[in-house]
Amino acid sequence: MNAYVGDMFDHAVSRDPDSGVSTIVVWGPLGPGYPTRLNGLVRRVLAERPRAILLDLNAVTPPDGVLPIVLTVLNRAVSKAGARLIVTAGPSVTSTLTPAARRELSLYADRSEAMRAAVLALPPAMMWWSLRAGPKASEYTNTAISEACHAWNLPDFRDRLGLIASELVTNALQHAGMPVAVSLSLEGGYVHLRVRDSSPDHPAARPDEDGARGRGLRLVDEAATAWGVTDRTDGKVVWAIVQVAPVRA
């Protein structure tokens, strides 16, 4: 992270190489001429071609009536450059925003939610892999889930997604008895998991869970926002989705 201290607001800029999200943290007084300086700062960051910019205004003082116009102009400039602007700010800033500015801006009070929204605003990301039955299948699946959650800034969902993936993949390998194709994608506010195999049989409860037949699929039902089976002429796809962030209208 690079920090810059001046006679008006101070700022720091960082970039996450995995997601392509650049973060600008601004703090201190918004002195005379701040619109020009803030505009120049955002445009310099845009020159590095980020996929999204997270603008953190939680520590600026004092905001003024010009700020809504400044943020609206910046949002349009970032959008025109093919990126997304996500703003995180406290009540001292949000109270100055007009209804029109609130509608146009992607605005979040919590920085962690703003970062998640910045990642989710990116084009859909996808991972896919093929598995055969064996001791490495579960390990590979868990590694893929961990890598995806890291890349998409979703550490809080790693265990939940891992549980769902482990059960669906294990079920498919045990009952289909053949290689399966697994895909994981981030689309909007949801992670989609799909497990495809060439067996027409729908998922069945595994009897090897301390005698509690069906416990694994019950856990999937509890952990997933929704799940189901789509029949295909060459087999089936068992899918599950997990909502990982509020979906903006």
Q: Can you describe this structure in just a few lines?
A:
By secondary structure, the chain is an alpha/beta fold. 37% of the residues lie in helices and 31% in strands.
Describe this structure in words.
The chain folds into 2 domains: 2-120, Transcription Regulator spoIIAA; 125-243, Histidine kinase-like ATPase, C-terminal domain (Heat Shock Protein 90, 2-Layer Sandwich), CATH 3.30.565.10. Helix content is 37%, strand content 31%. The protein has 8 helices and 11 strands. The protein has helices spanning 34-46, 67-80, 91-94, 99-104, 111-120, 136-151, 158-176, 215-223; strands at 2-4, 10-16, 21-29, 52-61, 84-88, 106-108, 125-131, 180-187, 190-197, 226-232, 235-243. The strands form 2 sheets. Strands 1-2-3-4-5-6 form a 6-stranded mixed β-sheet, with helices on both faces. β8 and β9 form a beta hairpin. The radius of gyration is 23 Å and the shape is elongated. It starts with a strand and ends in a 6-residue tail after the last strand. Mean pLDDT is 84; it is low at 209-213.
